[in-house]
Amino acid sequence: MKKSTKSGLIVLIMLLIIIGGYVGYTVWKMNQDFSSNVQSANGSYRIAEDSDAYDPNAAKEYKRNFIAAIYIEGTISEANQNYNQKWLINTIQTLKRNYKNAALAVFINSPGGAVYQADEIYLALNDYKTTGRPVYVYQGPLAASGGYYISCAGTKIYANRNTLTGSIGVMMGTSFDLTGLFEKIGIKSKTIHSGKNKNMMNYNEPFTEEQQAIMQSMCDECYDQFVSIVAKNRGIQYNTCCKISDGRLYTAKQALDLRLIDAIDSWDNMLRDLAEKELKMPGIKVNTYKYLKKSPGFIQILSGKALELENARAAAQLGVPVEVMKSMNETSMLPMYLAPIK
Fold first, then answer.
1. Structure confidence by residue, pLDDT tens digits, 39-70
2. Dihedral through CA 110, CA 327, CA 119, CA 273, nearest 10?
3. Catalytic site residue 40?
């Protein structure tokens, strides 16, 4: 057999292996995607059933028999590997209609995230409370910014003694003006746009005072909404709340002293308080509802590698470190309710 024929055969075999692996991976991924939409109940998985639909008349006669423990973890956005907005909203709404459900216990471990999604979850939890059932919130390692925003929907807020919380404030992007650098190294970049502010915050045009004022007004509006929610739900005067809402993180003890939380205790003790003191149902079971983390898909992995190569190429062209270029891409438009911590 000629050498070229052998080489072609080897390439063909390798391609078949890659294609077979990709097909197998795709089938596995479909199963994973399905599993990501089911709800974990005491270690097993089930899809919410229509028979669980809320019936006011049946609710009066039926003894509610479980607390739903919902986990909110990762950066709050539409969807990422650790978080899925649609799943979370659907879960809360399904539990609201389920007359067997007695209460929600919400575990939060999040640095915050997008303003829209954080507010949507806050409103969904408040809507759940219209049934008269309580929502207890437990803050894990981090419940900051948008994570604290959601916490404010809690009937009571508990925290671990090592929790970092608060970060009541707003961030909205970082502007990089590279026009001076471009001019120095001979690079010309032009974005065609209509409207003098359409291209604002792009690195190839200076960030004007007018544009800064525009962005600041948006941040101020969101900040006022955030502070108002904290003040209303935590029973703190608005002006007092403004003084403590400067974006800083608080320890659990500091948060307790400032009335931002109600208690420092363990997750198990919070569940016991909810069952025995709030519901008067000692021994009631707890069903866990947790979004299953997704592994990155084949295309996502390739896209990530391509982005890394593009960052390296662009950094080399501009004469800046790769980490600086990566930071520019990540912070050009940050979610508003995000804690300033890496």
1. 443 333 333 333 344 445 444 544 679 999 99
2. 10
3. no
